[in-house]
Automatic annotation (TrEMBL):
InterPro entries the UniProt entry points to: Acid_phosphat_B-like, Acid_phosphatase_pln, APS1/VSP, HAD-like_sf, HAD_sf
Organism of provenance: Lactuca sativa
Domain of life: Eukaryota
Lineage, highest ranks first: Eukaryota, Viridiplantae, Streptophyta, Embryophyta, Tracheophyta
GO molecular function terms noted in the UniProt entry: acid phosphatase activity
Protein name (Swiss-Prot/TrEMBL): Acid phosphatase
4Fe-4S as UniProt keyword: no
Record Pfam families: Acid_phosphat_B
Amino acid sequence: METLMFFLLFVMSNMVLSTKLSNDHLSRHSGGGQLVELSSSYCLSWRLATETNNLHGWRTVPIQCLRHVEAYMIRGQYDSDVKLIVDEIRNYIDQLVLSDDGMDAWILDVDETCLSNLYYYEGKRFGGDPYDPHAFKEWALIGICPAIPSILGLFRKLVETGFKVFLISGRDETAFGQVTVQNLHLQGFFGFQRLILRSEAYKGQSGVVYKSEIRRKLMEEGYRIWGNVGDQWSDLHGEFVGNRTFKLPNPMYYVP
């Protein structure tokens, strides 16, 4: 009898221990899943906050969001978002009636608007590393930035419709002037009215101040700015922004 009781107690204790280990195992896995879910939820919120300009002055993508931003940029969602925005721009253009004086203007930014630096930022963990001006200069001087397809199509429509298209960039005029023109032509951007880069007179100014001043000069020349497209809020804020502005997504870096 004592032997039987000992055996039963042994079996029951093993069952309790096995159940506890199993529950601990499930708890650990469930907790990991919750962590992944929480991280994904946070990164979606973080990206929304950057695109709606509620986060200012951020320098790098949060470490827990590196995979999220990478997936967004290379797995189709970024391209889909840009296409939807461009479709809306096209609808807006179709509603406009241009004058015959040749002074109807449209503004496009260059980097992450006309041209993509995604290959460069892939080596910078899609914004996970701090901005490196020397490394970016080396990349940009190669002059092989690919066009963003939806924007290239939009650019061609703008030119064909009769807009004077101005490309305004924060790139340094002395360092990048010639290579930027060549890169744009290489990618099919022909027929823009003017490429305007940052000259010595505007060095040290924020993007908002610099681009506002350029737009002011265009308005003084008599141009009517019907639209303005850029990936940074500094492209679209300030004065003389145009009749409508369109913000393209860019979760990889922030330009004040």
